[in-house]
Amino acid sequence: MANNSRRKFLRDLGSTAALIGAAPLAGLAAASGRRVLLQPEQRVSANDKIRIAGIGMGIMGFGDVTCALKVPGVELVAVADLYDGHLEKAKSVYGNHIQTTRDYREILERKDVDAVIIATPDHWHDTQAIAALEKGKAVYLEKPMTQQIEEGHKVIATQQRTKGILQVGSQRVSSVALAEAKRRYEAGDIGRLNLVEAKIDRHSALGAWQYSIPTDASPSTIDWNTFLKDTAKMPFDPVRFFRWRNYQAYGTGVPGDLFVHLITGLHFITGSKGPNRIFASGNLVQWQDGRDVPDLMVAIFEYPETPEHPAFQVQLRVNFADGGGGGEYTRLIGTEGVMELGWNDFTIKQHKLPKAPGYGGWDTYNTFTKDQQEAFVKDYMSKYSEADRKQERREDIKYSAPRGYDDRLDHFTNFFESMRSGKPVVEDATFGLRAAGPALAVNESYFKKKLINWDPVKMKIK
């Protein structure tokens, strides 16, 4: 995976779980200019204990559980996973006292489990989230919220009916940097938003989901039939189990893994409910490893004018075959400036057009006769003052979170505060589907080779 990728994989887990870092991205940020260090909110945690369980202990599962345990008053009591090696690893990391099981339903039956972290393959998200809510558990559900759009509506309905707590795990919405970016957008720092450009490019096997496969993977160490769920039955295949993101049956490809992060951040900043038209194109370029999803995708979204924001366009790109080494950025471009987002930092660059249009250069002025040029300049100077003619160029301002800041820790803190105080979570099921729905519609556009008309209010394909 590229050095500036959002995720940094620590190969030696040692006595801690696999952590997924969120290092600030260089993007296109300015090298000079004013810098503002953002300070996270100081919280005082309640004394009451919250007992959690992890369902799905792969890369995200270990990372999420380890991060959640940094919040004061949180205790891990159980984990569930279909691979015995993950269960053994969990005991070595978190202690032999925790319960380990292949059957997540055993965890949901425990009266002492207050909340579950669901980090299973995408095709299991809806079933496990709904079952947990029905059992009265608070749910932290990894993104994308669901694999299918209709599944998302079922999760929303269950959350609303049970009045349970569910937070989707796109941690960016809890970032102190994104909160400030939202304030700067609403203050008009970039003028009228008209275009968003975002990319996440990679050039490595791990970045393209070629995850390592343990040598003991077998039908005896893995519950293969449960993993398949309601997908097509097939012989045991450890590649599909450990690299499930590469297959339509179990994952959501590039849109569900990566586009959804970009959409989530954009919706948080702008207050948007989503686009109304979506078109995608792509190809399987480099990773001819049996996967049935593309490794290069480009999507164009049209966001209509609403009371919350003007009409604007969005261009998203993910390229797993980037010979330039990869890189990522998100740019919100307005009429008077641009906001260049990293992960926990962003830069505002402002270029405001002068009132006077200027003349000369690549212009018809140079084709005028001398007399006409003199007459034109005289008329021009009488119309526009010196202030009208001046190009306003303000100093770049870079906002960044403190070194070592972890937005995922803030996301979990928000989740547990909601459990303790009853205040709303920052990313509930409805917000989650407003981000996941357009991402899933990208797959619909790509595989059916057609423009998708999306209803951002009803969250449905028209």
TrEMBL record:
Gfo/Idh/MocA-like oxidoreductase N-terminal domain residues: 50-169
Assigned keywords, A-Z: Oxidoreductase
Keyword Oxidoreductase: yes
InterPro entries assigned: Gfo/Idh/MocA-like_OxRdtase_N, Gfo/Idh/MocA_oxidrdct_glycsds, NAD(P)-bd_dom_sf, TAT_signal
Keyword Acetylation carried by entry: no
PANTHER family: BCDNA.GH03377
Descriptive protein name: Gfo/Idh/MocA family oxidoreductase
Source species: Chitinophaga pollutisoli
